Amino acid sequence: MVRRMGMKKHQQQKMIGIDLGGTSIKFGLVSSGGEILRKTKRKTPASKNFEGVLAVIQGEVEGILQEEGLEKKDIYGVGIGIPGVANGKGEVVFANNLFWKNKPLQRELEIRLGIRVKVGNDASLAGFGEFHFGAMENTRNALLLTLGTGLGAGVIIHGKVFHGSHYLGTEIGHMIVGENFYDCNCGNNGCLETFASATALVKYVNHLLDAQEPSSLKDLREGQQKPLTPQQIFEAARKQDEVALKALNRFTRYLAVGMANLINIFDPEVIALGGGLSESGELFLPELRRRTKTMTYVKENNPTEIVIADLKNDAGILGSAMFVLKE
Amino acid sequence: MVRRMGMKKHQQQKMIGIDLGGTSIKFGLVSSGGEILRKTKRKTPASKNFEGVLAVIQGEVEGILQEEGLEKKDIYGVGIGIPGVANGKGEVVFANNLFWKNKPLQRELEIRLGIRVKVGNDASLAGFGEFHFGAMENTRNALLLTLGTGLGAGVIIHGKVFHGSHYLGTEIGHMIVGENFYDCNCGNNGCLETFASATALVKYVNHLLDAQEPSSLKDLREGQQKPLTPQQIFEAARKQDEVALKALNRFTRYLAVGMANLINIFDPEVIALGGGLSESGELFLPELRRRTKTMTYVKENNPTEIVIADLKNDAGILGSAMFVLKE
């Protein structure tokens, strides 16, 4: 999807935004007005090897310049969102899915590209994308929660990306909100993402099926060689399957606790929900809003809006591009 | 206690900081270097009547000026922390302990005093005091938690007081962290302050005593005409009373959940603990640090420090004074 096609006035800058994931690397040539002028995708090298990833990025950035007839000097900078912790020096402190620790990503890319590079956390930068061009536009304080395998967050405070003092903040998926029947892979029990994520949903359905609760999902699970997907659970919920509805209800109930906690703490203008599960938002958004409202400290006319995020897969490249331009 | 007695260089400003509580109103004539040049206290009128409080404040501010031989023009401004929500226009949206709703405190005081006035939340401004002159000095992101009747918080982000977008933020006492045997007075179950506050501690001890658990506190409670105090419970814990230790342990365990959540969310340099219970911090601080560490997402060398706040009762007047100077 190419956004904001209208030509913008003078002084438009061009940036390249990169969303580096464990399976793919997404690239966007982005204007400062938020147009995505070109969008490409490459596979993340299977080894996740640092040098290998650098080579893929270098190759693709140079390819984009060539295709677009641009020179390095035409690019204001390259922003890159990584699935882990990046510090203020552009080093990847750790990125578990990539098996990286202490990788000087900014420095190595700047040497290879000859273009300024800024590195940030992927969810934070997706939030920055929604802040500039999506569901969090025209706010000063707003949060993006990404409901995927885990629960990630991008937090904007005072109009800036908030990372915390040591780039370790906004781990909202690991906010403890109760007790759960399984432990989080961080070692704790009761983390929000063990109740409100794709993993959580599937685990809870399996838990119910293992306890012999009757459900159409039982046959489905047994008939296929792979685990149930959230989409299958949502589909069953649409058909009023009891187990699916029970799991969806629990997911919504705990997500509402998380939302209320975040509203009580941050009092943002907007909390936007992104990530794969948000695409089935119609199934839980009304109930989520209702439940959240009962738990916020200020209940009457609480002004925080809960919405589905706008930019889908483009949030990361737009936010990364704006990150190098603005911060 | 008069802080920072050393004379400061040219251009020192003088402000009056006011800490408005349900039982007393504290006043401080404060220099921009953080010296408290004069400190006074008046009773809050029993009726909590808005006009009555305005008259007390006006009388006391004028008295301070007279005693110090100062004129209105010598005072940069008056900052005032209120026990409730104050919006950006200096209106008290609500302050339950004062029975106030929608009171134009800034405007009415400016008319009466002829001095600029700024109004903020008391815990937020106490945090701003610790940020300038206390346990949170030299930080960019830091939190003060006040462990009193409830659990309040002052949050500094990017070096500024953080209120949220609608001045409803930092209600950290109402973060839901589990299930409790009694409901919070906000209507929810599981709020942090129902586990980690003076009220919580006393309620849990009563709960154990009512369940006939043997304890020296049982006789104490029955022998006195008033409820147990946190100090009595701490004293019993020092003497290894089982019920007191059990209550202290639960208090610490849940406070650690709150601390870990806040570290995972904010990644601050410092979390400072203030309020009455923090004066017995030696009883729970080592265990609190240990437990918090096991629950933070980044466990190895997590850099957030947990400390006891410095300024005690002066935090509010210092923070209020700095608030009118800086924000």
TrEMBL record, chains A, B:
Superkingdom of the source species: Bacteria
InterPro entries attached to this UniProt entry: ATPase_NBD, ROK, ROK_cs, ROK_glcA
Statement: the UniProt record of this protein carries the keyword Kinase: yes
Pfam families given in the database record: ROK
Record's keyword terms, sorted: ATP-binding, Kinase, Nucleotide-binding, Transferase
Enzyme class: transferase
Recorded GO MF terms: ATP binding; glucokinase activity
NCBIfam families for this protein: ROK_glcA_fam
Identification of the protein by name: Glucokinase
